[in-house]
Design goal:
The chain is α/β, with parallel strands linked by helices. The chain has 41 helices and 33 strands. It has 5 domains: about 230 residues, P-loop containing nucleotide triphosphate hydrolases (Rossmann fold, 3-Layer(aba) Sandwich), CATH 3.40.50; about 190 residues; about 200 residues, 3-Layer(aba) Sandwich (Rossmann fold), CATH 3.40.50.300; about 140 residues, PCRA, domain 4, CATH 1.10.486; about 210 residues, Lambda Exonuclease, Chain A (Alpha-Beta Complex). Helix 23 runs antiparallel to helix 24.
Length: about 1100
């Protein structure tokens, strides 16, 4: 493989360890590899110990991956190291691996606060609230605040806002919004009330002039927009007064829209045109400025009303010892800012900070990083903008082209500020070699984004950096389709749902074909670095949507094609969930007759109207706690009787069992998962039900009682439902489906940019200016007017300019989102298009200037119809077969064994002395030798072994003997050799996997005999693998290889040594063999040390 052009930058990452670096790593350039490489170099050179390194990631998943890759790299470096000093550093790092911090910024802040809670002003036993718990706590505090309004003397403020038709839900939304930006100063100065005479003196006159040209009767094609408004105002004038400001406001707001005029619907066409022009001029000169002034007048009233609630919520969290995610960041940063002693302590402890995905992290993180690593001109300086990081203390990786979380407080302006600061004290490197995508995709990305990104970075947009792909296109004879393709659709009736449905059908059909016998070939590298092709599997495909709305639709379409799918970020409400919510409500309140009838008629039980009538006719009430004890005499009423009896049983479960346990048992009794799985998109339906149970289990309130559980289910069914999942979720062989924001950091051979509809353009709703200190925030306040229409209620002064500025950031981020979408694919990128409405297709900008992109050929794929079973089911035979299968599945497919047990079972046992000391004596000697290896000696060693003897119940007569045995060993030549060795280890536990045949060969036994000797009662036919475990007592590494020693405390008579050596030899040689074959270390020597006889027997000779 050729060396990439950015190899110098990559070398500096691992070699230039005393320089602060910000690495701008493009998509697929190996960001994680760079982080791991620098961490390993810090250990190798001795520039940092492992407990002085901190790596901060964006997500928990990224932290897990980084932690695992660092561990593997450390093990590999230790194995390959030739320099003794480097090897010692690697070994020390491995031993202290649990001391390194690798995690998210929130986890890091939590750790700081738990170590120094007093300095942070926190309860030492503070509890962290997850996102959902935090929202619930915030809602409770809002309710408390409203109840305390009279006590606080603020009832008049609420009543005034309500007179302006502002409801409490709108105020709650403002409170939630302001709470999100608790680190931002919200400016809301009072402004004068607008002059209502501007409307009173202009609108009635204008209306009167227009009214004189209104037709007496409705035109044939109806009233135009202006006529409809005039008629509405005329109706309101009957009950309203122009002297009332609120009435004037309401009437004026009706004109806040486009007033289209159809001239032939007025009595005089010429006057109709003039009236339209007059109203447009009046809107521009009077109405719009008046409405803006009114909104600016209301804005401080909103802010001033909710701010005390925000402060109250913060106080309650402090009083109750709980912190939100945002509190973790703010309180940890405040602690570092305000206490130089704490700052110095943590700066010394975390000497090397490495940060991943910095372009999308919270702005507070920037301040924290500079406080931990920075030094200022003045001692004790705590303004992060005046601090310079110590040389080599800060290493940041990010890609401004992938900054896509502005809605979560990520701010590219802060990224640019940090970049400038790092350039002053260190350097900025570029990684542009791409190891993910084939050349065709790289060429496409460069062509599209060279025009979308500027040559030089601006405040709101990253600079264009050419992607240099390292993977060639698949050769033609490999039949591996690659590059850019489109799926284009003609006009489709039925709106965006119909477009999404057709796209889901086409995408699913292609994936089903691609995973078939003669499907798509996928190019990938083998272990030698050579390219090869293989057949596609479902996990090779990633479907990305701009929004979450139709994710479940794609999962269902794949399910119909027999392809497993794993979704993230979608939500749905299936019929089974509605029925389950009704059943829960019915069991929560036995007197709820509506819920009971709904349950009786739902798909769970399917009672007909006739059956309900027959039961009532028999004289029985509809109540599951008042059913007759005797069998119902009328056969037609039996179905209702049986269901009510079942409901009574369920009711008993809800009273005796924990809520979620009861619900799980009810679902199992009804066979609900099986029922759901047999429906269309059954895997998704059943998987979502399992997800529902998991979420209920995590809900503290709903898990507490059945009533709360029923309320939660009802709330979910009235809202957006539950996040969908699949029965195949978490498996490797599933198509992944998610919205674009979830796809950061992911990749796949084939990526579909799906759902070519639903895109919308909207104005900004908030603007935060972080160029000033402290940062200042502004918000637009609106409430829902109609289902898809919101009306603006209030805005800050100067919002028009803020909106334009924020839209620049929004448009820049939209292009970065497209960049993320275009750079996920390895081999093929498929872009869905809907030319009929290009403005509503989120992917249209990705094909600008590309008229010759080939259309993806989707083979005809017909999903198999599920045949209806019409035979007579033999239930008894089915249950017998099921029971037998459960027994088979319950049998072990593996066995566990010990090296000692396997080797001893294959040899002839020697004759032990009657003077044996027992197993506890042997354990005492082993532990004593290990303690000696850690530096214990003399009286300290004796006292330690006496303590161990007491715990192990060793006879007092044997304790002194054990101490003398350990001391004798430390005086032996073998021990002296170990002291001169490069590495010395005690009590090393091993676990390795073997097949039955391997075990049989090594144990000189039959496989069945081996299994029998391993686990009594295990059926030999079901065991395929054996996991063998053992402990090497003592080993050390000399120049020629490792020496493995097994301690034996056996006592034997003169002349019997050979029998014991022969008996124990297989055990020690097994350790030696596995140390070489399984773990890759060269073994120089293996032997037995008989402690009681002070004799070492080398077994290699």
């Amino acid at each position: 493989m050729n060396r990439p052009n950015d190899w110098e930058a990559r070398n500096r990452i691992e070699d230039d360890l005393e320089t602060n670096l910000l690495v701008e790593a493009g998509a697929g350039s190996g960001k994680t590899t760079s982080l791991v490489g620098r961490m390993i170099s810090l250990i190798r050179t001795g520039n940092a110990q492992v407990n002085r390194i901190t790596a901060i990631t964006f997500t928990n998943k990224a932290a897990d991956e980084l932690r695992e890759r660092f561990r593997l790299a450390l093990e590999k470096s230790l194995s390959n190291a030739e320099d003794a000093e480097e090897k010692q550093r690697y070994a020390a790092a491995m031993e202290g691996l649990d001391q390194i911090f690798i995690g998210t910024i929130h986890a890091f802040c939590g750790m700081l606060l738990r170590e120094r809670p007093v300095e942070a002003g926190l309860d030492p036993a503070f509890r962290e609230l997850d996102e959902q718990a935090g929202e619930e706590f915030q809602s409770r505090c809002w309710d408390d605040y409203l109840l305390r309004l009279e006590e606080l003397g603020r009832v008049n403020e609420l009543e005034e806002l309500q007179r302006y038709c502002i409801n409490v839900n709108t105020l709650k939304a403002v409170y939630d919004r302001v709470s999100l930006f608790s680190d931002v100063q919200i400016e809301a100065p009072e402004v004068p009330r607008p002059d209502f005479d501007l409307i009173r003196l202009s609108l009635p006159r204008l209306m009167a002039e227009a009214w004189s040209y209104m037709p007496t009767y409705e035109p044939e094609r109806g009233w135009d927009a202006l006529q409809r408004v005039l008629r509405l105002i005329k109706q309101k004038e009957r009950n309203w007064s122009w002297e009332n400001d609120l009435h004037v406001l309401s009437m004026a707001m009706e004109f806040d829209k486009k007033l289209e005029v159809t001239q032939n619907r007025w009595t005089e066409k010429a006057m109709a045109k003039e009236i339209r022009d007059r109203f447009e001029d009046w809107q521009i000169t009077v109405l719009f400025p008046f409405i803006r002034a009114w909104r600016e007048y209301l804005y401080p009233k909103f802010i001033h009303f909710v701010m005390p609630a925000v402060v109250y919520t913060q106080q309650r969290r402090t009083e109750l010892g709980v912190v939100s995610f945002q509190d973790l960041l703010e309180k940890a940063t405040a602690m570092l800012r305000e206490s130089s002693a704490v700052r110095g302590y943590f700066a010394n402890r975390f000497q090397r900070l490495l940060v991943d995905e910095f372009q999308d992290t919270d702005p507070i993180q920037a301040e924290m990083l500079f406080l931990l690593t920075g030094t200022g001109v003045n001692e004790g300086e705590n303004d992060w903008r005046k601090l310079q990081p110590r040389p080599g203390s800060l290493f940041i990786v990010g890609d401004p082209k992938q900054s896509i979380y502005r809605f979560r407080r990520a701010d590219i302006s802060i990224y640019n500020e940090v970049k400038r600061r790092i350039a002053e004290s260190g350097d900025v490197l570029q990684l542009y070699a791409n190891f993910r995508s084939v050349q065709a995709i790289g060429d496409y990305v460069n062509y599209q984004f060279e025009s979308k990104f500027p040559k030089v970075a601006s405040e709101e947009q990253a600079a264009f950096v050419q992607m240099q792909t390292q993977s060639p296109n698949p050769v033609a004879n490999k039949m591996a389709t690659h590059g850019i393709h489109t799926l284009t659709y003609p006009k489709i009736a039925g709106g965006k749902a119909a477009v999404a449905n057709e796209d889901a059908r086409q995408v699913s059909a292609y994936i089903a074909w691609a995973c078939g016998k003669n499907g798509l070939n996928i190019q990938e590298r083998d272990a030698n670095g050579d390219y090869k092709v293989r057949r596609a599997v479902p996990s090779d495909f990633l479907i990305l949507l701009k929004t979450r709305e139709f994710i479940s639709l794609y999962a269902e379409a794949l399910d119909r094609c027999g392809i497993p799918a794993d979704t993230a970020g979608s939500a749905a409400i299936y019929l089974e969930m509605f029925s389950l919510a009704q059943l829960s409500a019915c069991l929560a309140d036995p007197s709820n007759k509506i819920a009971l009838l709904s349950v009786l008629r739902c798909e769970f039980f399917g009672i007909s109207d006739q059956e309900l009538y027959d039961y009532k006719k028999a004289g029985h009430p509809y109540h599951y706690l008042a059913i007759p004890d005797n069998v119902v005499e009328i056969p037609e009423a039996m179905p209702v009787y049986v269901v009510l009896e079942k409901l009574r049983t369920y009711y008993t479960w809800t009273r005796k069992l924990p809520a979620v346990t009861a619900l799980t048992r009810i679902m199992e009794d009804m066979g609900l998962l099986v029922h759901a799985s047999q429906k269309e998109a059954g895997a998704t339906r059943a998987g979502t039900l399992i997800k529902l149970l998991q979420q209920l289990q995590d809900e503290i309130d709903s898990a507490a009682g059945w009533g709360a559980l029923a309320d939660t289910l009802a709330e979910w069914c009235q809202g957006k439902g539950v996040e969908t999942s699949s029965l195949y979720a978490g498996r490797n062989q599933s198509v992944r489906i998610m919205n674009l924001h979830k796809a950061k950091g992911l990749e796949a051979p084939v990526v579909f940019l799906a759902c070519p509809c639903g895109e919308s353009d909207h104005d900004a709703t908030e603007y935060v200016d972080r160029t000033v200190d402290p940062a200042v925030g502004y918000f637009i306040i609106s409430q829902q007017k109609y289902e898809f229409v919101k009306e603006t209620l209030a805005q800050p002064v100067g919002w028009e300019a803020m909106n334009l500025r924020e839209r620049e950031f929004m448009n820049a981020e939209r292009d970065r989102l497209l960049y993320v979408a275009a750079t996920r694919a390895k081999q093929m990128l498929v872009i869905s298009q809907y030319p009929e409405q290009p403005a509503k297709c989120p992917w249209s900008p990705l094909l600008l200037g590309m008229e010759m992109v080939p259309e993806l050929e989707v083979p005809v794929f017909e999903a198999e119809e599920r045949a209806e079973y019409r035979g007579q089911l033999d239930v008894a035979a089915f249950m017998a077969e099921r029971a037998a299968k459960v027994v088979r599945l319950g049998q072990s497919s593996y066995a566990r064994a010990s090296v000692t047990g396997l080797t001893k079972s294959s040899g002839e046992a020697p004759e032990w002395s009657s003077e044996g000391r027992g197993m506890s004596y042997g354990s005492l000697v082993h532990m004593g030798i290990e303690a000696a290896g850690k530096g214990m000696a003399g009286e300290q060693l004796a006292a330690y072994m006496e303590m161990l003897a007491d715990q192990l119940k060793v006879k007092d007569d044997f304790v002194a003997e054990a101490v003398l045995a350990v001391v004798a060993f430390t005086n032996s030549e073998l021990w002296q050799r170990s002291l001169r060795a490069k590495t010395r280890l005690h009590e090393v536990r091993l676990l390795f996997k073997k097949s039955l045949e391997e075990i049989a060969v090594e144990a000189v036994s039959e496989p069945g005999d081996v299994v029998s000797s391993i686990e009594a009662g295990t059926v030999a036919e079901t065991v395929r693998k054996v996991y063998v475990e053992g402990v090497i007592d003592f080993l050390f590494e000399e120049e020629e290889g490792w020496v493995i020693v097994d301690f034996k405390t056996d006592h034997f008579e003169e002349g019997k040594e050979e029998a014991f050596v022969r008996f124990y030899r297989p055990q020690v040689m097994t350790y030696a063999r596995e140390w070489e074959q399984t773990f890759g270390y060269r073994v120089k020597e293996a032997g037995l040390y008989f402690v009681g006889h002070e004799r070492y027997v080398e077994l290699n000779k």
